TrEMBL record:
Domain of life of the source: Bacteria
A GO molecular-function annotation: DNA binding
Protein name: DNA-binding protein
Keyword DNA-binding tagged: yes
Keyword annotations from UniProtKB, A to Z: DNA-binding
Keyword Cell cycle attributed: no
Domain Rv2175c C-terminal, residue spans: 71-125
Pfam families per record: Rv2175c_C (PF18367), Rv2175c_wHTH (PF21531)
Residue ranges of every copy of the DNA-binding protein Rv2175c wHTH domain listed in the record: 20-63
Source organism of the structure: Planosporangium thailandense
Length: 126
């Protein structure tokens, strides 16, 4: 489901994987059934995360579960930002393999282990 490659030209030494599928903001708006301006508001409110890929703001597809943003994603993003992570670093953390979860924090968020992901994100601030 993921492709292992360098993020923005950097060498990957932390087992980070990049999502296999990205959605542009208009695709997110369509999927969620909301105007594009509301997608921009979700980004400003830290309820969703997007990074530039090929010059376009994109969101990993799995962070949008059906017709909504993953339930615990906004809380995790807030914790990561409180720990000083920018969007690129937060995304890298979400997609860094962790055998104790197993998988990545992004996988764990969508598979019922959100409490543990939040606990780990909170610990980054200390």
């Amino acid at each position: 489901m993921y492709t292992r490659r360098a993020w923005q030209g950097e060498g990957v030494t932390d087992h980070a994987v990049e999502p296999a599928r990205w959605l542009a903001l208009p695709d997110i708006a369509e999927r969620l059934g909301i105007p594009i301006t509301r997608v921009h508001q979700l980004l400003r409110d830290n309820a969703l995360i997007a990074v530039r890929r090929d010059g376009v703001l994109r969101v990993p597809e799995e962070l949008v579960a059906g017709d909504t943003v993953l339930k615990h994603l906004p809380g995790v993003l807030t914790l990561l930002r409180d720990a000083g992570y920018n969007d690129e670093e937060a995304l890298r953390w979400l997609y860094t393999a962790d055998e104790t979860l197993p998988g990545t924090p992004a996988n764990a968020l969508s598979s019922g282990r959100a409490t543990e992901v939040k606990r780990r994100a909170q610990a980054l601030g200390f």
